[in-house]
Amino acid sequence: MWRLKTLTVFTALGLLISHGAFAANGIMGFSWVIQSGTPIVTEVKPGFPAAKAGLQRGDWLMSVNGRSLQGLNQYQAKSLMAGQAGQTSSFVISRNGQQYTVRLTRVPPPLPTQPTVSPVPQRGSFGKRYTLHQGYPLIHGGASGRLAARHPP
To answer: Could you tell me which residues are beta bridge partners of residue 33?
Structure first.
């Protein structure tokens, strides 16, 4: 009975997502913190819209879409900067005393990647040899090289 309800919920969510009820939040490819009451860029990820537009670490974010970001807390500033993939925002930034306008179009977040698995056993912090299998460490024991522990079923 529980499984039937779960499938129904997942089916309903799938239909809502496929019909645009939940749009993916877009990302612009930079991180920021609030310093002295104003957001400042702390990291720009290469290949993302922020890097392509010339945003740099240390740029002060003065406003977004005509709304000032000064004096806001992190939650308020984040809500003004958030948007869906494909949506464009206009930022006024301050760099070395000069103000610039930068337009950024959000992109969908990248899909998570599977960690790379090395078939060659590695040495862990306790000197045991291990390999990764489906994200779980397989610990190899003794001189025989047989498997000493397995991942959970």
So the answer is: 40
- Tally DSSP H helices, then E strands, for the chain: 3, 9
Strand partners, 137: 132
Instruction: Mark out the alpha helices in 1-153 (DSSP H runs).
Output: 2-18, 49-53, 74-81
Q: Give 90's DSSP letter.
A: E
Which residues touch 100 (CB under 8 Å, ≥6 apart)?
A: 92, 93, 94
Strand order in the sheet with 122-123: 122-123, 129-133, 136-140
CB atoms inside a 10 Å sphere around CB 43: 11
Structure tokens at 76: 């308020």
Q: Give the Cα separation of 130 and 118 in Å (integer).
A: 10
Tell me if 91 sits within 8 A of 64, measured CB to CB. Answer: yes
The residue among 43, 54, 58 whose CA lies nearest residue 95 is 58
Q: Which amino acid is at 128?
A: K
pLDDT digits (tens, 9 = 90+) for 90-104: 999 999 999 999 999
pTM for the predicted model, two decimal places: 0.59
User: Using alpha carbons only, what angle is made at residue 96 by residues 94 and 102, rounded to the nearest 5 degrees?
Assistant: 35
